[in-house]
Every structure is written in structure tokens, then in C-alpha cells.
């Protein structure tokens, strides 16, 4: 026969494996460090830090029920909670079960016991109510006292009614008769509607506060009642087909823009600041390629880093990672899914740093993941195409997670950021909820009908005689990479435009391409052939390229044309290179070869670098940062199923005395008080660490055990709730 539990430890020991798994899933912090047995699990679960984290995860209704329990005495029942909250028992019972599943409450519905640490969390005056009076007044006595005091005391009562229930008054504890009372406070004290707390403090009695609150509302817990059900998210609807097309269009656009900004970093890596972010100047330069929106540009950088597509090899420069080369070759739906999942699971608020210094370290926020998932899951509950506004989301989020607003950034600020970023990702389109949002919220793969809407990449462009190339859709990764090498991209989107110039063609030569190779590549990937003006441009750059060669001597220049040599020596900008002629067609400089090349390019020449053997140097291999690793994974990422199995297995290995029912252990302690026997007590100390001591019990009462440690004559007081096992010291192995 299973007896009713008398402590939280006993209640948790009665859980089956599925119930224990549910507890560890609802309170993941209990998985780290992994408890060695049930008593240690309970010790961790009742620490103030863990309790605060668990309460932050409650919705507004569950939190209200928890606060009502903190108001009521130990061993209360559902009906008393129902009276405080003005709602039927059918609304209370699910919330009580939710608290019980989180080990914040134990006992049956007619004998409920709130965990002491939860009660302490709500402070001395939960719901703004004072403790029960030593000699409470009846309702009839309160009404009679109020009539005797008159209306003049009402402002004082209104001031204390909803909390805090205390006020400061000099000589509050002096005896006052009803005849001698003159002020409203004296009248209230004389009629026992207020009672002195100490010399200078008065307190509104709980029974008086509850009676007065009940005459204003059936909700006795606070000024604003909390509904048992969340607010429904509704709004005008848009056509499902329109929303779907707009959402996929936005998703395809952000995939293209992330590729574009990473390609820019590939050509020109940016230096990182000390805090790991990019400078405002660099962000502004990058933003010019993305319609000048700094927040959007910062978001692209943030999401690329979160997805592991950009990083730093040396903590100095930002470059693509090796994962980028794999990602850029994947189909569009898979590329979008990686970005969206990285955004949803990122432990930072992207928009907090996007406008100033993207990627900076202080944008990390422990609750960013929970808050972002909350907003997305709420929105996913609305019908596809429903147009939601942020005011609705704020109201709903305040019910689902009232604790979200207590930490870090303001909740309304977080909602604004999240909703804007969801629009950029295509989760929200034209203000309406899209199918992509539901896919992300459920953790599913993209269904085939959505994946088919992403455009297939092309392998060709239209090259025009005005030295431009038009891409009529997204290009294959290899094609777009080579095209961006040979031309400058002038527009984004499905119909991107690229422009060829001497500078862009020169990049191809620097990368090791020959003139004929450039022409052949363009011929293969142009649906209109290579126009004559572009062929002339390639030939013109090829003739000039390498006419001047730079090496290290510290630097030397070989110039075939005497007129060109003279022009270089006489040019004002070249003066800082301190060039001098050492032989016909040969100049030397104390400057580094890279500086010489840069200066000659600035004055309109096209030099080529060569190595010590006279061989032309091409662009070096692209720099890559290491592959992305999950840095923000919680230490308690061990699965709840594994943790539960380990705890139950360890519990079975405990000695029988350690698993003794607590009432038997208490009886053994009480017996030891009379016999003065030594007992071995296993318990969890205030730090949550298991401990064992041999003690001589002196008294067992009031929820604790007082004993003497014979080893040092120390008097010890242990709460019964923290004792996990008791045995006679003589039984020790």
C-alpha cells in the first residue's frame, strides 16, 4: 500500500520514470550537475536559483495559482485557491498539476504543500497581503468597526489595500482606546483594523484586506485579474497564396543577400574590433550594397555568423568559414532552413548590435532563445495569413511568459526586433503569418510544395554590349562566384545586374586567369555570346597587364617602355616610393612590394607582381575560418530520458536505510532521542551537496531535527525535508 508523501523528497520518489522525465524536461537546469539520487535532485530543485528559473517559466495563470498558494497556509486545498482567484476549481486544477509536475508543489488536491523556497520567493507579503492575524476578526466585527470609524479612514485603507500592507507611523505600538483615537490611523488601530508590527510600523490585517477586496472584485490576488486562458491572436486575413509567394520571395532574397555579403568579405576581409564586432564604418560600407539599411546589413552579418558561415581564424579579421563553401552549393530551401534555424536558436539579440557594432560579444543574452521561440510559437498558433500587430504579441507574451520582461531587454523591444527579423526571413509576409513560420516552429523540413517555389539556380546570364550582364534569377554558386570576380554586382534580387570594367577584369588576371580563359568562360555562360566591346576590354587589359613587374629588393620594378619609366619617376604620387633606376628598364624602391603595387594602381597603371624567380604571382588562396561549432549549447543538454534513467538506477543502488520511508526514519530519530543512541543521517546541505553525519538526536519537532555531533560537540539543526536517509550508527558497514 502506497502511503501519502509527507515531504517533497517522498513525493519525487513516488514518481514513475515518465513523470521524472517530464520534471527534468520542464526544469532542464536539474540535469546539471547530474544528481546522484533523488535526495540530491530535490536539493538542487529547492535552491533559490533553480526555483526562480522554474517560476520564470510559468504562464501568468500558473504564476497566479502559485502566488495564491503562497498566500494560503500549508496543507490548503483547491477550494481555497478558487475563492482567492474567483474562478472554478476546473480552472485551478490544471495549473496545480503544472506546478506539481515541476516539483514546485506536492500533495493531493485537498492537502497541497507549496515548496518552502517558492513561498520565500514571493516574499513576506505575497499578493500584498499581510500574514494571518493572531486573533482574526470576523466579517461582522470588521463591518461594525468600519461603521464606527466612518469614511475618514477610507483613504488609509485604500493606500494599504493592494499592498504593501504596511505603513510608517510614530509610536504605532502604544495603547489607544476608541475614545482617545482622533486620527484615521488611531481609529483603525483602536478598532483592530490595523495592528502594530513594531514601534513605527502598522499593518493592515489580512482578513480586513480580503473582505474589502472581495467587495470590489471576485479576484482577490491583485488589482488586475489574470484570465485562465491565453488571449486569442486574431486579425484580418490575407490570401494564403499571396502570403506564400511573398514569404518565399523574402526567404530567397535573404539567402541571396547573405551569399552576397559573405562574397564581399571573401574579396575584402574586414578587421574586427576588440569586442569582436565590426566597426560602424565597415558596416556603412557594406550597407551601400544593400540599399543603405544599417539594421538589415547588421542582421545579415549576425545571421551569417550564427549559421557558422563567417568567423575569424585569428580573431583579427572576419572571413568565410569552410562551412560557407558547402552551404553555398546547397539548394535554396536547405540554405534558408539553416539560416532560419540558426536565428531561432541564437543566444543573442541580433538587432541589439546590428546598427552599431554587429557581432560584438555583449549582444549575448541568456533568455534570447526562450523569448524568440515564445514569440514564434505564439504566432504559429494563428491561422496562415492572419495579420498580427506587435501590441497583440505583447499582450499574449505577457500572459504566456510574464517572467520574460524581468530580465535584460524590455519585452516590447524584443518583440519589435523579433517581428522585424521574422519579416526579413519570410516567416512573416505582408504582415501576415506565413507557412514558413509554422515549419520553423515545429522543427520540420520544408514540405515539397514550398520547396518547389524556390527558384532553380541558373548557369547563364545575358551579356549586353554596354558591358553589363543580367542574371534573370539566382545563379549557381560556382557561376555567381566567378561572375563576381570578373564583374561588379550593381543590383540585388532575382534580376541582378553585373558590370564589367578594367578593374573587375583585372581581378580575374590577378586570380590567375588568362585573357583567353576569361573569354571562354563568358562564352560558355552567356546566352547571348560575348559582345565585341567586352572582348576589346579583355584584350586591352591583357595587353597592359604585366607590362610592369614588381618584386622584392626591397622592391624592384622592371619597365619595358622607357617613356613609361620616365612617367613613373616624375609622377608626384610615386615620390614616396623613393624609386631610382639601377639599369635600363629596372627601378628599385625601399617600399614593400604590396605598397609599390598599390601606388602604381592608384596612378592608373596595371602592374603585375612576380616572385624571386620572375614568375607572375596570382591571387593567393582564399582565407577560411574553421568550421562552425555550437558555442551556446547549455551544459544540461543531456537528454531528460538519459538523466532520469541514470538517477533511478543510482537510487536503486542506495543502501536500504537511505531509501527508508521518511516516516520510519523520523520514528527512528524520535526513538534515538529517548535512548540517546547514535544515528547516521544522510541529508542535503544548503548548497545542494549530499552529506552524512553521525549525530545524537536531542529533539524532533517543528519540521526539524536538533542533534549533537559527538565528534565536536556541535549542536546541529536539520530540516526534515532535507533528510534522505536514517540508520543506526552501529549498522554502518
From TrEMBL:
Domain Helicase XPB/Ssl2 N-terminal stretches: 461-583
InterPro entries reported in the protein's UniProt record: XPB/Ssl2_N
Protein name: Helicase XPB/Ssl2 N-terminal domain-containing protein
Annotated organism of origin: Microlunatus elymi
Amino acid at each position: 500500500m502506497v502511503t501519502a508523501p509527507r515531504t517533497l523528497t517522498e513525493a519525487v520518489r513516488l514518481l514513475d520514470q515518465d513523470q521524472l522525465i517530464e520534471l527534468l524536461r520542464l526544469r532542464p537546469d536539474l540535469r546539471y550537475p547530474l544528481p546522484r539520487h533523488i535526495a540530491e535532485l530535490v536539493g538542487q530543485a529547492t535552491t533559490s536559483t533553480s526555483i526562480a528559473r522554474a517560476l520564470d517559466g510559468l504562464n501568468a495563470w500558473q504564476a497566479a495559482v502559485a502566488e495564491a498558494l503562497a498566500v494560503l497556509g500549508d496543507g490548503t486545498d483547491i477550494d481555497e485557491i478558487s475563492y482567492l482567484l474567483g474562478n472554478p476549481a476546473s480552472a485551478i486544477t490544471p495549473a496545480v498539476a503544472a506546478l506539481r509536475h515541476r516539483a514546485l508543489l506536492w500533495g493531493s488536491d485537498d492537502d497541497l504543500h507549496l515548496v518552502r523556497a517558492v513561498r520565500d520567493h514571493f516574499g513576506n507579503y505575497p499578493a500584498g497581503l499581510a500574514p494571518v492575524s493572531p486573533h482574526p476578526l470576523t466579517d461582522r466585527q470588521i463591518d461594525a468597526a468600519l461603521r464606527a470609524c466612518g469614511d475618514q479612514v477610507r483613504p488609509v485603507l485604500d493606500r494599504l489595500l493592494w499592498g504593501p500592507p504596511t505603513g510608517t507611523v510614530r509610536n504605532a505600538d502604544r495603547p489607544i482606546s476608541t475614545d482617545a483615537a482622533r486620527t484615521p490611523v488611531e481609529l483603525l488601530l483602536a478598532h483592530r483594523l490595523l495592528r502594530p508590527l513594531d514601534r513605527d510600523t502598522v499593518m493592515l490585517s489580512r482578513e480586513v484586506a480580503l473582505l474589502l477586496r472581495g467587495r470590489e472584485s471576485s479576484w482577490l490576488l491583485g488589482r488586475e485579474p489574470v484570465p485562465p486562458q491565453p488571449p486569442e491572436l486574431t486579425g484580418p486575413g490575407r490570401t494564403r497564396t499571396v502570403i506564400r509567394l511573398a514569404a518565399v520571395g523574402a526567404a530567397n532574397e535573404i539567402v541571396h543577400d547573405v551569399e552576397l555579403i559573405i562574397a564581399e568579405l571573401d574579396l575584402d576581409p574586414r578587421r574586427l574590433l576588440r569586442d569582436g564586432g565590426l566597426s560602424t564604418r565597415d558596416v556603412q560600407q557594406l550597407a551601400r550594397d544593400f540599399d543603405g539599411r544599417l539594421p538589415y546589413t547588421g542582421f545579415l552579418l549576425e545571421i551569417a555568423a550564427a549559421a557558422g558561415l563567417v568567423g575569424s581564424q585569428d580573431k583579427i579579421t572576419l572571413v568565410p568559414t569552410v562551412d560557407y563553401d558547402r552551404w553555398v552549393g546547397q539548394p535554396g530551401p536547405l540554405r534558408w532552413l539553416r539560416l532560419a534555424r540558426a536565428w531561432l536558436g541564437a543566444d543573442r539579440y541580433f538587432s541589439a548590435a546590428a546598427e552599431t557594432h554587429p557581432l560584438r560579444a555583449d549582444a549575448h543574452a541568456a533568455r534570447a532563445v526562450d523569448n524568440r521561440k515564445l514569440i514564434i510559437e505564439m504566432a504559429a498558433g494563428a491561422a496562415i495569413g492572419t495579420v498580427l500587430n506587435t501590441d497583440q504579441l505583447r499582450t499574449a507574451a505577457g500572459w504566456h511568459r510574464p517572467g520574460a520582461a524581468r530580465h535584460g531587454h524590455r519585452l516590447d523591444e524584443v518583440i519589435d526586433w523579433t517581428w522585424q527579423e521574422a519579416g526579413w526571413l519570410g516567416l512573416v509576409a505582408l504582415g501576415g503569418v506565413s507557412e514558413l513560420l509554422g515549419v520553423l516552429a515545429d522543427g520540420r523540413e520544408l514540405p515539397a510544395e514550398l520547396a518547389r517555389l524556390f527558384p532553380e539556380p541558373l548557369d547563364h546570364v545575358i551579356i549586353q554590349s554596354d558591358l553589363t550582364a543580367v542574371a534573370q534569377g539566382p545563379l549557381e554558386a560556382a557561376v555567381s562566384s566567378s561572375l563576381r570576380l570578373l564583374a561588379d554586382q550593381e543590383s540585388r534580387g532575382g534580376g541582378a545586374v553585373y558590370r564589367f570594367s578594367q578593374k573587375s577584369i583585372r581581378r580575374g588576371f590577378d586570380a590567375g586567369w588568362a585573357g583567353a580563359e576569361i573569354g571562354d568562360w563568358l562564352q560558355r555562360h552567356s546566352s547571348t555570346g560575348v559582345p565585341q566591346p567586352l572582348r576589346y576590354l579583355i584584350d586591352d587589359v591583357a595587353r597592359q597587364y604585366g607590362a610592369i613587374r614588381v618584386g622584392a629588393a626591397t622592391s624592384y620594378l622592371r619597365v619595358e617602355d622607357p617613356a613609361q619609366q620616365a612617367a613613373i619617376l616624375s609622377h608626384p604620387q610615386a615620390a614616396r616610393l623613393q624609386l631610382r633606376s639601377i639599369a635600363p628598364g629596372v627601378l628599385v624602391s625601399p617600399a614593400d612590394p604590396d605598397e609599390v603595387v598599390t601606388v602604381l594602381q592608384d596612378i592608373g597603371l596595371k602592374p603585375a607582381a612576380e616572385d624571386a624567380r620572375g614568375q607572375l604571382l596570382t591571387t593567393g588562396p582564399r582565407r577560411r575560418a574553421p568550421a562552425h561549432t555550437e558555442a551556446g549549447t547549455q551544459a544540461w543538454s543531456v537528454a531528460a530520458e538519459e538523466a532520469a534513467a541514470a538517477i533511478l538506477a543510482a537510487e536503486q543502488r542506495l543502501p536500504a536505510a537511505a531509501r527508508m520511508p521518511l516516516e520510519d526514519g523520523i520514528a527512528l530519530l524520535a526513538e534515538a532521542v529517548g535512548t540517546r543512541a547514535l544515528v547516521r543521517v544522510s541529508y542535503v546541505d544548503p548548497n545542494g551537496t549530499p552529506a552524512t553525519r553521525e549525530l545524537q538526536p536531542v529533539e524532533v519537532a517543528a519540521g526539524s531535527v536538533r542533534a549533537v555531533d559527538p565528534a565536536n560537540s556541535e549542536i546541529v539543526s536539520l530540516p526534515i525535508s532535507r533528510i534522505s536517509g536514517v540508520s543506526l550508527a552501529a549498522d554502518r558497514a
